[in-house]
Amino acid sequence: MSPIDSTLIHLAFAVLLLPLAGFTLLIFFGKRIPRQDLIETGILFVALAISIYIMVQKVFFIAEPRIDFTFRWLDLGALIGHPGFTIDLGIAIDNITAIMLVVVTLISSLVHLFSLAYMEGDVRYSRYYAYLGFFSFSMLGIVLSNNFLMMYAFWELVGISSYLLIGHWYEKKSASDAGKKAFIVNRIGDVGFFIGIMIVFTQLHTFLFSGVFAGIAEGHLSGPLLTAAGILIFCGAVGKSAQFPLHVWLPDAMEGPTPVSALIHAATMVAAGVYLIARVFPMLTADALTVIAYIGAITAFISATIAIAQNDIKKVLAYSTVSQLGYMVMALGVDAYSAGFFHLVTHAAFKAGLFLGSGSVIYAMHHEQDMRQMGGLRKKMPITYWTFVVFSLSISGIPLTSGFLSKDSILGGSLAYGMLTGNYLIPIIGYSVVFLTAMYMFRLIIMTFHGEPRDVHKYEHAKESPKVMTIPLIVLASLSIFVFYSFNPLNPEKGWFLESVTKPESVVPGYQKYSWDFLQVKLVEKHPGETGVTNSGETFVTTNAYQMELERIHYTGLFLSLALALLGIFTAFLIYDWKKIDAEKLKQRVKPIHTFLYNKWYFDELYGATAVAGTLLLSKSFAWFDAHVIDGIVNGAATLIRLWSRLSGSFDHYVVDGLVNFSAWFTGLLGRGLRKVQTGRVQTYIVFALLGVIVIFYVFKQF
Amino acid sequence: MQYQFLGIGYLTWITFLPVLGMAVVLLIPKASTNAMKWTALIATVLQLVVAAVIWINFKPGLTGINDPNGFQFVEKYRWIDLPGVAWFGHVAVDYFLGIDGLSIPMVILTALISFVGVVASWNINKAHKGYFALYLLLDTGMMGVFVALDMFLFYVFWELMLLPMYFLIGIWGGPRREYAAIKFFLYTLFGSVLILLVMLALYFSVVVKDPATGQMMHSFDMLAMMNPQNFDPNSLLAGIGTYWRYVAFIALFIGFAIKVPIFPFHTWLPDAHVEAPTAISVILAGVLLKMGTYGFLRVSFPIFPDAILKFAYPLAILGFINIVYGALCAMAQTDFKKLIAYSSISHMGVVLLGIAALNTQGVAGGVLQMFNHGVVTAMLFLIVGVIYDRAHTRGLNDFGGLANQMPVYTGIMTIAFFAAIGLPGLSEFISELLSYLGAFQAFRWVAIFSSIGIVLTAGYMLWTLQRVFLGQLPDKWKELSDVNGRELVALVPLMVVVIILGVYPSIMLHPMSSTLNHLVDFVHKVGTGMTAVK
Asked: What's this model's pTM, rounded to 2 decimal places?
């Protein structure tokens, strides 16, 4: 390891452990230190500075793809004649790690800063900062892990910090419920992840990504089992990134403080699932990727439709987050790896901004979250308003914003994929969500900031938030501009970001890599020169076909998405600002649909009636079985034995003892009878003796 | 002998120190209850010190199990020597103690939990003399089981611990203590009878040369029972894979299964726990349950390797049932202690799953889970004890909002609950991980179905946490005080162990690994009829 590499590894450890140190300090000495909040915030800014250094070094100056540091954590020795059982752990820095380090520490430090004002005077202020530090530690752990085990461990730790922070105001039942729900729903996904890891480990005997990929390349894990492993690992992402069907926890997680929502439930933790897919991307088979693409698309669509009908400002943003995460997942599924990761990063900035902006509004409105009570805040809160507009333009994908660059790459990827594979549904969903996104975002802006104030009293008291809250907004708004990612506002391809985030080589055996059979046929037709033959004699197609298709549809896709986004914004203005269409009347006309969307497609009700009720019923009936049947048998056996012992007691008393007493009585009877013979007179005895002798004489005479 | 103090071996010291303490307790006048408490405390602290000395001097890398040279701290003397007994012939029983990588974690666990138990017994309020005397006797019984290598001696210790337990539950327990105590006693006694029968069958089957006299004779030496060559060819249990060997294995299995407890022999456990005083629950869950699984690994597996290879799959399925059934039953409880009792059943299922896998990671995970579960469950019962002492109720629905009233307590409780959930960074994560990895390699589908337990555990644990600690504090609990110093003395050491083993489990796994590897290897080779490896 060269000196600079080893320095970077050390620095990465420092970044990882600093927030943990802050957590430990605050948990044990929280009350005794003055201004604990500043300590933790300062720590995060130091971590941010180090992360930026690491990223710059890694992305621009170090040519090798990854710096690995591995150590032996566990050695259980070897059975004779078997390979030993060992577990190696470690951290690695490659480009996406380095970028993620900056994303996490940046958003985290801004959220720390923002919370100084937002959480001021909270009942558990130092606890809050401690948990934020713990979260940052766990999240950085996910980012840095170079193996499945640590990834999974930090994955769970992130889950628990999310649990603790969602339930920060645990006096409220809804908050503690939401935390519990988040953890359990995540756990369901995690079990899949865990099983996936077990498959990998059992086949390849290592947790290290590098070792796993090498093993798959050598063919030690292939076929349906490899697909299953990929899909199961993806289950972890389904939980953490709130994908359909496990997306139900994220909107409830909004019970947590708003800065937490910005950090954990918008920018970083929920993106961990996407990061996981990016990490294991080389081992995903075509079938697994297809599943991933569809799950992502379905999620994007469902949650975008829900977002349109919500009135709680945070709920809209929550569903928007789910929808955007769906985009990222879909991007990875359709092989648009770089685009998916790109969107993760840009989304982290603008969605954190949106949440912090909503936090600023909620703060000004004295913890009012219902948009129907807002309106007209534009004049009172100019900084919040204008940054909010920038974020919304970015998420809607309007040129000159970062969101445009990343979203356009995703949509282009999905379109190319659809055209090549015949999965037209995916691009259709992708593009329709563009319209929905623009519409619900501007609906939100108009309801909150435009028009006349609806709650005049609260409006009177509203004012722009303090600097510690607006500065993070301004920083994030500037990071939502294209120039930080690519100097060309219309095409990110040549920007530093996409140059440094390149799709890794797949390690999946060739025949599985492109096992979409429809894809094979079509690609062969379109680009006959690009096909090849694997060792096993099956044909395959190189991805260049995909690249070519991508370039071919680039401008079509771009204009299509732009048109749809503008249409969405226009519709929002038409309905909510200019009131050309009466929102209430519209609602009445599509009432069943509106009710359906307003109630979030009834997922919670469905799960409540099936999974939750089923488990509780099962648990109650098992407990009954245990108390009545099993214990009934035990107690029944005891009763039977007692009965038996009573019976044998009676037997003993009446029969055994009866016999004894009978024989005694009988003997007595005999004795009494014989007593009569005992006369005491010699003559009588002589007669008896004589009779006896005669009897004996006759008896013996027989022989 | 190297490891001696005052001419007496370390293992004898660690086993009989509590009995010394008991003798002192019995001599103390009835009124000086404090002197009794301190005597018990000193005895267990000294025991803990000896355990630490043993651990420091323990040499990892030796085998054990069936290899006499692989054991450490060995003490072997002729204990009973009857030249001519009708029927039995020449009876000789050895006082044979020794430890290997399988027993070392259990020895440390027993010493640790016994110490914690004394601290938790501080506010026992009646018949102190009897309580502490019986407690210390119980301690000796438990420790003896984990260090005995002669089956007769093993059985003596096994029974020795039964009677004190019966009285400790039956006299110092809750309202239904007599029912619970008799249920525990009869259940365990039933198991003991089966163990006794198998022990005698083994005794009459094994013939070894007595090193002292050179005469061929029967033996209770467990190590001798592990060598198929020592079985008299005409005896009941000779050969491998015979009908009677399977019968004997199953009888022995039931004997140990009651202790674990394995479904459907588990219903004594919730009752015993609910009625037992806190310290006894701690001992029961922390140490006693481990004797069952220890018995499998020490006795059943190496003596009947052919049978365990045949019954590994059913054993794994029993593990699955324990995990899922225990978790679901736990979810339905409203009594805090009963909930923890059922969670014990569920967590012990993980041990079964791991050891049934019969591979390095599975067995190591199972044994580590025995240790970790002992520590974590001890914490959980102490935690229940803390609020029961203050509130005199254990109803989960009676509480709420304790987090604000008792912050330190809540912090410790959070660690224990998260450890029970299997959160990474805390001890149970590692042992469950290894157990599942092992099971997955051996029985993929059983492991997959068992992993439902991971979700269920999180469910009932977090629900409990919510019901007791979160939400609004009812007015009647406004007076509850936070944990006191004594309770911290009991809880903090356990918490430290949970965290250390969660981050760096090698401390515990390293001394175990070569013995467990040897065990796995031995079972596979001997069980399939290949000759025993040295």
From this structure: 0.90
